[in-house]
Fold this protein.
Amino acid sequence: MTDSLYAAKPWLSLLNEAQRAPIDPADSLVHALRRAVAETPDRTFLAYFDGRLTYREVDELSDSVAGHLAARGLERGDRVAVLLQNSPHFVLAVLGAWKAGATVVPVNPMYKSGEVGHVLQDGEVAALICSDRAWESYLRDTAAGSPVRIVLTACELDFQTRQDARVLTFERLPQALDAEDLTAAARAGHKAPDDRHPVPTDIALISYTSGTSGTPKGATNTHGNIMYNAERQRTGLALPEAPVYFAMAPLFHITGMVCQFGACLNSAGTLVLAYRFEAGVVLDAFAEHRPQYTVGPSTAFMALAAHPDVTPDHFSSFVNISSGGAPLPPALVERFRAGFGPYIRNGYGLTECSAPCASVPPTREAPVDPVSGTLAVGVPGPETVVRIVDDQGAEVPFGEQGEILVRGPQVVPGYWRRPDATAEAFPDGELRTGDIGFMDPQGWLYVVDRKKDMINASGFKVWPREVEDVLYTHPAVREAAVVGVPDGYRGETVKAYISLRPGAETDPGELAAYCKERLAAYKYPRQVEILPDLPKTTSGKILRRELRSRPNG
């Protein structure tokens, strides 16, 4: 590293004094909660439709959850799986598990039985906290034969009375005889153990991710990893005191966990929850709560912009808006700014680096690379070093493409009980991201694409992102995804899947011709298929792998 081109950190000149300043974060988010309770006990922490919970109430309720778990035999270091949407129950479950000295395993509620079963077995999960509906429909059978010995269920109708039928589409179920109610446990007044305070090196989360390939592995996000990024968010976003955050990203995803829940708690702000993303519900929440910050995937902003009732006033309270978790096309940024006012600031991170490792500073706008048309994802923080290396691991000069490597306080120590995978992905503690990108001489980082998504057309490299960015400049295109499909002559050829903006009309031939005018001959899509919607993860990322597996007509 002493001879590293990137060790000089040219990006420091793009940060202001507050963003460059050293930070001394608290030990954990539990400590941040105690600090907020001491300073502002009656401030609203969680807003859930018409429900409100103060910092004091969240502290007492999560204390009781911790005491309940401990009384049921949960020990320090045990794993607690939390499979819930964005509701107060998620926050109470996570804080309660941490206060009991446990490690939280956040699980996507969209996972099927086999996916959840892998997590329960691999993580040796001792306790499961989930919705009552999931327990009755499939998790009871999934948990049978797993290490799970404690079960708490939740009905997300609690803590509000509005019953918004757009998202709260279910009814309360009778309490299961083989599980206990999370809300009842929270209101029982149990005392939290006083000898299980988390320390920075304790594992806060085991976040399951497929990484670059293969079976999902558990990234071991420590309390120190999370607190570093939560504190960088607090000092770097230039938000007012007691900011209002809207939780657009799911809290079970590392972006929602750190950049919404963690950053808001660390700022003693208010976190607005709306169960799950539904564009009309989100816009109503913006109008009601007037949030100053949110972060979400580009697809969420596309959905908001396409809603028939959206107006610029819905976004007038925002001081900062970030995008992460999915590529952000430059055309969307400008279209959104022209229509609604805010500039969406890009960001880049991975589960293995506890969400962000690069972002666009609040006073800056990300440049667009004039050659590829790629929008910069931002710049690293002062304690982070991002390097670009070739296939042999040698650094490449500024402006040249290679694999992105990250070293810093937010990088996890490794994968849960996977020493071989850890050694491969974290040589000497530095994360090999599997992403291809480059850095310009000023320190702006650009992500070109995933290494595994490269298309080889007649021996030429085609990065899907470059083609997608061109497609997003077409006025009819709402969503775009580009994949490689088998081709008898070229080996692979470029295929684009498109969804259209409301009321727009075009056809595959016109879209292919549009790209042909703007891209090298080997890059433009020979095949274009228009779909009503593109398949996405619950965090909003378009699923290229699902599109690749579609029958190719």
The chain is about 30% helix and 25% strand. Residues 454-548 form a domain with the GMP Synthetase; Chain A, domain 3 fold (CATH 3.30.300.30). The mean pLDDT is 94.
